[in-house]
Design brief:
With 75 residues, the protein is α+β, with helices and mostly antiparallel strands. 45% of the residues lie in helices and 12% in strands. The longest helix is centred in the C-terminal third of the chain and has 17 residues.
Length: 75
């Protein structure tokens, strides 16, 4: 297991190496998707057994990944 961001880890043996909340098998993408779907942070935390700080960490990780991404619009 490798810590790649605060509270976010990857392990080839867990979820095929996708980023997950540290100490869980909950993918960052699922947490971010739940926020995008309008679920409350309390609902997400209860549903997946994570803390609200984990949700913040997932959103921060996703934002940082997007900041690194370059998208070229077609001309």
């Amino acid at each position: 297991m490798t810590l790649i961001a605060p509270r976010i880890t990857v392990d080839p043996q867990i979820r095929f190496g996708k980023p997950v909340i540290e100490g869980t098998r909950v993918p960052v993408s699922v947490v971010v998707g739940a926020v995008a779907a309008g679920d409350s942070w309390r609902e997400i935390a209860q549903e997946y057994g994570i803390a609200e700080e984990d949700i913040r960490a997932a959103l921060a990780y996703a934002a940082n990944r997007l900041e690194e991404e370059t998208v070229r619009a077609p001309i």
